[in-house]
Design goal:
The protein has 6 helices and no strands. The protein is elongated. It is an all-alpha fold. The protein folds into 2 domains: about 55 residues, no CATH class; about 55 residues, no CATH class. Helix 1 packs antiparallel against helix 2. The relative contact order is 0.07.
Length: about 140
């Protein structure tokens, strides 16, 4: 069914009717169809390459709006790519406090082997860290 929408969007671009392409995308979404990447490609081409109606009072505003949409789209794609790469990197390269790669060894097993961590258990959140600081200050003052 999306093929029909794609054809109409392509025709909107060919016949310089980008407003109709925008309306068509909204109608498609309102009808319960989620456009895929190919449909978005035809939509973007129709909207960005077609000549917009000249009754718009300030064409520079339109051009800036087009540029803003392109930049926002690129930023969203980059953010999604970074999140995916960070997730993969954090799963594959966990590091201990000294910056050494653990290589699949859990943090608690490495810390339990260090003699410097025997007297103080490792802190897991900011509340535990603040409690440890208060205990250390009270021990030095009192």
């Amino acid at each position: 069914m999306q093929v029909c929408y794609r054809v109409v969007m392509q025709l909107c671009g060919l016949y310089n009717m980008p407003v109709l392409a925008v309306k068509l995308l909204f109608l498609m979404k309102r009808g319960g169809m989620q456009p895929n990447a190919i449909t978005y490609g035809f939509y973007n081409r129709a909207v960005l390459e077609a000549a917009w109606p000249s009754d718009i009072t300030n064409s520079s505003q339109l051009l800036w709006a087009k540029l803003r949409n392109v930049i926002l789209g690129v930023a969203l794609f980059r953010r999604a790519a970074r999140k995916g790469s960070r997730r993969r990197l954090s799963l594959s390269m966990e590091k201990d406090a000294d910056g050494h790669s653990l290589g699949g060894v859990s943090r608690t097993s490495v810390e339990s082997g260090n003699s410097s961590h025997d007297s103080v258990p490792p802190a897991r959140n900011s509340k535990e860290v603040s409690e440890m600081v208060v205990k250390q200050k009270s021990a030095t003052l009192g």
